[in-house]
User: Fold these one by one.
Assistant:
Number 1:
Amino acid sequence: MHDKELSHEESLKLISSMIGQAKDAYHDTGRGAMLWGIVIAICSIVKFTEIHFNYRLPFDIFLLTIVAIIPQIIISAKEQRNRNRSVKTYDEVFLKYIWIGFGIAIFLLIFINNAVFQSWQPVAKEYRELTGNAPVFQFSEFVPAYFLLLYGLPTFITGTACHFKPMLWGGIFCWVCCLITLYSNTETDMLLTALSALVAWFFPGLLMKREYQKSKRKESADV
Amino acid sequence: MFKDLDPILHAQLRLAVMSLLIGVKEAEFTFLKEKSKASAGNLSIQLNKLKEAGYIEINKQFRNNYPLTLCKITRKGVEAFEAYVLALQSYTQNPES
C-alpha cells in the first residue's frame, strides 16, 4: 500500500475493508469457557450423587471451582503470549471486565449465602426445638437459582455482544433453569445446573475453539 | 455545497491506518503493517504525519526486551474520521452536483 490519492469510491471501499479486518482480529480460543463448563458440570453432578446416594465427601466439591482458577490463569497467560496479531479490541476489553465482574459477583454470592446460612441456623434450631419439626423453609433450595441467575448474565451479554448465538441461547437457558429450580428439589437443581454449565459454556466453548482454529489456519494460509 | 476532504486522511495508507484504528482500542505497529501490507518505512512516515495532526497517539515501550509501538486513535482523530466519512457520503450521494 502506498500514499496515493484515492477516488471517493475507493476510499469508502478501503474504509469498509479495513474496519472489517480489524473486527475479525479477535477470536476467543474457547478454552476458558470449556474449562468452567466442565468444572461446574462435574461439581453439580457430584453434588447430585451425594444427595441421591446419601453419602458425603469429606470436603465441599464446589471448592474445585477455586482450584480451577489456577488453570484459568495459565490459559489466560498462554493466550496472551500466543497472540501474534497484537491488537486490543473494544469487545475484548469489555468482555474481559464483564467476566472479571462475574467472578467477583460469584465469590460475593458465596459469602452472602454463608452469612444467610449462619443467621438462619439458630432460627431453624429454635423452630425445631419448639415444634419438633424441621422448618418448611429451606434456604439451600433457593441457592442454585441465585447462581443460575448470575451464570446467565455474562453469558447472555457475551452472546449478544459477539453475535455468538450459542452463548446467547446458553444465557437464556440458564435463566429458564433458574426459574425451574424454584419449583424443583435440590437433586433436580443440581442436574439443571450441570446441564446449564454444559449448554452455556462447554458446548459454545467447543464451537469457539473450532472457529479459533479456523481463523488460525486462514491466517497461516494468508501468510 | 461539498465539504473539502481532509488532505491528511485522503491518502490510501493513512486512511487505511485510521480505518483500522477506529474500531479497536489500540494496535501494535506490526498489526497495522500486516493489515495495510505497507512497508515499515512508509508506515512509520505516515504514522508520524497522523501523530503530528493529532489524530493518533503513539506510545513506544519495550516488551521482553523488544521495542513495541502502540497506536491509538485520539478524540480529534475520531472526529476527523467521522467528518471525512460524512463528506465522502455527500460526494457519492450527489455525484453530479
Number 2:
Amino acid sequence: MKSVFLVDHYNEADVKPAEMLNAYVQLAEKNVNDLFLRDTFVNCDCPGCGASDRAETFRRFNLDYVSCPRCHTLWVSPRPDDESIKRYYANSDAEIYWREKLSRETALARVERIVLPRVDWIIDSTQQYLPDADHFVDIGTHHDVYARCLSEIGRFSRKTLLNPICEINPGALAHSTNIVNEHISKAMPDNSVDAISMFEVLDRTSNIDGAMSHARRMLRPGGLIFITGILSTGFDIMTLWDQAQNIFPPDRLNVFSVEGLTMLMERHGFNVLEFSTPGMFDTEAVIHAVETNPKIQVPRFVSYMLENRGPEGRQRFQEFLQMNLLSSFGRVLAQRQ
Amino acid sequence: MSKPVFTCGIAGYGYMGEIRKQVIEKSDRLELIGISDINANTRQELSGCAVLSTTDALLDKSPDIMFVCTPNALSPKICVEAMRRGIHVFCEKPPGRNLDDIQTIIAAERHSVKLMFGFNHRFHPAVIKAKAIVDAGRMGAVLNLRGLYGKSGGISFHNSWRNDESISGGGILLDQGIHMLDLFCYFCGNFEDVKCFSSRAYWDFNVEDNAYVIMRNSTGQNAIFHSSATLWKHTFRLEITLEHGYIVVEGLLSKSGSYGRERLVTAKRQFEDEAAAVGNPSEEVTYFDQDLSWELEVNELIRCIDEDTPVTISSSHDARRVMEIISKAYLDASNNPGAA
C-alpha cells in the first residue's frame, strides 16, 4: 500500500470562505429540522466495521452521533433514509445556497485546489493499475464545475455522471459524457464500469452497504474505485470532537476512521491500493474554532504548539499529520477483487 | 483449470541467489528443484532441494526456468547452454561483462525460450508510478533526466568479485549504475551520444569507483548520471523533468533499507510566464511501504511463458542497449586524459 501527502500552502477560506460557510451551516441546521421526518429514521450499525456496539457522543442539529468502540468511526443513528436525503439535496435552501453561491463564487480556487488534483489522481492511477480502462462513472457529483472537469478527462472514451438529483446542463459537459438521473441500485449493468469516483459520497449516504454493493456490482473485476471523505481520526475532529464545525448531518452522516473505511472496503471485496490523508486544514480548523469560541478546551500541548510555533511550525505539523494518516481528509483508491 | 507449475534451478547462491530462492518458494507457480554453487561452505548451508557443485549438473536436471545468479564472467556461458537445452532463462544484471558477452547471449536466443534480465528497478513501486504518470501524458514530454545512485561499499567490498575487472568487467557503473541507465532508457528510449569521466577516487580497485556520464539522444533529450561507490550515505535519486512539471523518485525499498523510504515526488509547473515563476510549486509526495519488485518481475516472465509472448520488459534488447551505453561510457572515459 502507499500513502500520499501534499506540500502546498492555501487556506480553507480559499475554498470555503468563513462567512459563506457559516451561512450554509445555518441553513443546513434549519433544513435538517424542517425536512427530515423523524418517524422514518432508521437505526444502523457501524458503517465501517459493521459492529453493533456503539457509544453515545454528541448531538448535532438534534440528531445523535454515536461512535464505534472497535474502529472509531462516527455516525448518525438513527438516521434518515436515502430517499429523504435525496429530497434534501434536491430541495433544501442549504444545498441551493451551496450550489448557486458558495460553489460558484469559489469555483476557480476549487478547480485549482481540489478538482484538478483529483482528476490527475484518477488519470495517473488508472494508467498505472488499469491502462485499458474505458468507462468511467462518477457517482454523486451534482455541482457543475466539478462535473465539467470530470467530463473533460480525456483518458476515458465513455464517462457517466450518475446522480438521481443531478441538474447539470448536459450542454456544458464534454462530448461522450452521459448524465444518468437514477439511483445507484438501478443504474449500470453488472461488470460494465472500469473506474468509479465517489467524492464525499459515502459521508452522506444512509445505506452504506447498499451503495458499496452496487458500486462493486457495476465495476468489472480489477476495476478501480476512488473515494474521498472526512475522517473521524483526523487531528481537528479528534481535538474538537463535539465542537468540530464541519461535522453535521446530512453532509457528514458517516465520519469513517482510517481503520473503519479500510474495513468497509475489504468486507465489500476491494483491495486498498492507496490510503492517504492529504488534508490541509486540520491545524487551521482547530485555531479557527478556538478563536471563534474561547471556551473550547484543547489539550495543553496543542494549545501551546498552535500559539507558539508560528505558521511554518503549524505547516510542518500539518505535513506530519498527512504523513501519518492523521489528517481528517482522506482519499482511498481500491481495486475490486 | 489450474496453471502449470514451472520447475526452477538457481545457478549461484550469493546475495541474488538467496533473494531468488525466497521468491520461488513464495510463488505457487514455481518449484525449486536445485541450486548449484561452487562454494562448498555455501552448499552445506542449503537444504530442501538438490544442491549441486556444478551448473552442468543443475542443467542436467532440466528445470523449466534457470535463474542465473553467478558472477558476470560466468553468466553468458550458462545462459547460452540453458537456452540451447530449451530452458527459459532469468539472468541477473549485468548481462555479462561487456558488449561481446550480451551479444553472445543474444546469438543463442531462440523463439521457443524466454530470456529476461534482472533490471529489477523497473518494478519498484515508485518507478512504476513514475512510468504511469509519464505514459499518461498529462505532464508532457520528458525534457531531461538526472540520476544519482551510489553506495559506500563495506567491509567485504574491497574483496568482492564485483570489483575485480577480470570477473566483473567493470566497476560501480556496470554493477549498480546499470540500473539507473536502464531506467533512463525505460523513460527515454535510447541514448546514442555518451560522454563519461571515471575515477578511482578512494577504493584501491582496478575498476572505477565513480563514473560521471552525460548522454543525449536523437530526440534531443539529455541525461546526467553520477554512479558512485563513495557515497557514504547510500543514495538513489532519479529526477525526471517534463514539459509541465517534474517527477522525483527517491529512496529504494531494499533488503537493508539503507537507501531510505521509497518515495515519489510530483509537481506541476505553476506559471506560464517564467518571470512570474516562484520556483517552489506544490508537490505531491507518495510513500511506498511494500516492495513487490522481485515478485513482479518474475511474474512477468511467467506471464510471457504462459501466453507464449515475447519478453518486452527487461528483454535482451534492453540488455544490449544498456550495455552499449556502458561500453561507450568506458571507451570515452579511457580516451580522456587523466581518466581511470
